[in-house]
Amino acid sequence: MNQEMYSFNLKDAIKSFKSFPKVFKLLWSVRKLHLILISMFYIINGMLPAVSILATQSLLNAIQTSRDKEFIYVLYPLIVYLGLNSFGYIILQLNSYLQSIFRIDLNYKMSVMILDKAKTLSLSDFENSEVYDKLRRAQNEAIERPYAVFSIVLSLISQFLGLISSLAILLYWKPWVILLVVIIPIISTIYMAKMGHLQYKIEYGRSQERRKSWYLNYLMTNDIAFKEINIYRLGDYLIEGYKKLNKKFIKQDKKIIKKRTLASFIFEILDQIVGGFILYLIVKSAYIGEILLGNTVAYIRSLSNIKGNMEGLLSSISAMYQNNLYIKQLFDFLEMPVKEELSISDSIQIEEINTIELMDVSFKYPNRREYALRNISFKIRKGETISLVGENGSGKSTLIKLISGFYHDYEGEILINGVSIKKINKEDLGSKVGIIFQDFNRYELTCRENIGLGNIDLIDNDIKLQEAIDKAYAREMVSNLPKGIDTQLGVWFDEGVQLSGGQWQRIALSRAFLRNADCYILDEPSASLDPVSEHEIFRRTSDLAKDKISIFISHRLYNLRKISSKVLVLKEGKLIEEGTHEELMNLNKHYRYLYDLQNAIDLVDDIESIA
Ligand SMILES: Nc1ncnc2c1ncn2[C@@H]1O[C@H](COP(=O)(O)OP(=O)(O)OP(=O)(O)O)[C@@H](O)[C@H]1O
User: Per the database entry, which stretches of residues form a coiled coil (predicted)?
Assistant: First the structure.
C-alpha cells in the first residue's frame, strides 16, 4: 500500500476539489433542472440566516425605539420577519424533496454504470483480486460519494456566504472578536480531517478481509454450500471465522469513535469558553447602553452563526477530502482501461470458423509462476472432432479458455482461420462458439431463459428452443416440468423446481445448441452425466457438428475413442501425444496407460458391484 496516500495535509485537501468537475459532469447527466434548482436553494439557504438576523435586529430595534410612534412602524418589520421565516421553511422542504428524488435517480444510474463497466472486464480481471476489490469498493463504498461531494461543495458555498454575511454584522461592532471566533474551529477541523483519513486508511486496508467476511456470510446463508456445511458440520467453524474478522473490525471502529468523541469533547469545551467570553462582552456593551437590544440579539446570533458556519465550512473541507479518496476509487474503476481487444473498432469480422490453430503457445496465469501450458501447437479443421485428454491439472480447461479468447497474454499465436484471435471481433467469435464449461451456470430463472440465454434472439421462438432441447435429449425432462418450458428452475424463487446435476447439464447443452455455432466445446460433461448419457451426448454433438468443429474433454476415454478424429494428450501443460485412438494405443505410451488404467478401474468397479 502506498504510504504517501495516507499523509494528510491542506494541499491534499485542496487538491481533492479537482474531482468536482468530473463529479459535476456525472450529476449533470442525471437531471439538469434538479441540479440547477438544488444549487440555487443552497445559495439562498446560505444567505437566509444573515438576512433573518437583520430582520430580527430591525424588528427589535423598532419595538425599542417606536414607543411614541404608530404600530405600523413595528408591523412592517414584523411582516418581513415572518415572511422570511416562511420562505426559509419552504425552500428547505423543496430542497430536501428535490435532493431525495435526485439521489434515487443518481444511485440507479451509478449502479448501472458500474454494471456496464463490469461487463467489459475480462476473465483475468475477475481473477485478479486487485480489480475485484476495486469493483467491490466502487459498488459498496463509493456509490453514494458523488452526491456527497456535490452537496459538500454547495454547502461550502452556502456556509461561506453565511460566514461572510455574519462576519460583516460582527465586523460592524468589534473586528478583533472575529479572530477569537475562528481559531478553535480551525484547529478542530484539521484534527478531525486526520481522523477521517485514518478511518479511510483502515477501510482501505480491510477490503480483503471484508471480502472474506462477506464470503463466509454468503456461504452460511446460501443454498449452494448448504449440503457440505451441514454434513461436515462446518457451521461453527465458519461462524468462528466470521466472528474473528468482525471482532477485529469492531475493535478498530470503537477505537476511532473513542478518539473522535474525546477530541470533540475537548474542542467543544474550549469553544464554549471562547464563546462565553465574547457573549460576556456583548451583554456588557448592551448593559452599559453602548448598543440597542436589536443589535445585541443580532451580534449574539451572528456569533453563533459564525461558529456554526466555520465548523461547517472546515468540516466540509475535511469531508470533501475524505469523500474524494472514495471518489478516486470509483473513477479508478470506471476509467479502468478497457482491454485492447474490446476497444478495437476495426477488429476483423468472421463469417464462420474454419480452422483453429495454435502455434507454440505457452501461457501462465498472472498470479502463478509456473506455466499452465507450454509450447502447444496443433491445428483443427472444420469437420474434425478433437478430444483433449490428460490427468487433472494438465491444462485442458486452460486450453479451452485460450481458444475461447478469454486470455490474451499468452506467448505464441492462436489463429482462427489464419488470423490472430486477438484481432478477431470478440462478439463475432463468441456467437460462433457453443460451449459448456465444467462449472457451467445454473441460472435461477425459467427453463426458457436458461436455454434462451444461448441465443437471446430466439428466446421466444418455441420451435427453435424445442430443436435445441431435442438435440440435448432433454425433451421428456422439460415436458415433465410443471409448467413445461416456462417452469422456474432452482430454489431461490417461488415455484422453482430443482433439477439433478445431469438435468442441469442437459439444460446447459440445450443452451449451447440453441446458438448456431461453428465450434462446439464440451468440457467434461461427465461430472454430472452417467457414462451412457455422456456417450450419447458426445456422439450426438459430433453428429450434429459433422461439418463443424467439436472439441471434447472427458476423463472417460472410451466415450471418446470412436468419435474422435484426433486425440490430444496433455501432461503437465505439454502436448505429449497426438493421433487417433488406434494410433495412440499402438504407440503404447501415456494415452495407452490412461486408457488401460481406466478400463482396469472400471473392471474392478464392475466386479465389486456384481459381488
Ligand atoms: N484461474 C486460475 N488461476 C491460476 N491458476 C489456474 C487457474 N485455473 C487453472 N489454474 C492452474 O492451471 C493448471 C491447469 O489447470 P486446468 O484447469 O487447465 O487443468 P485441467 O486439465 O482442465 O484439469 P481438470 O481435469 O482437473 O479439469 C493447474 O495447475 C491449475 O492449478
Answer: none
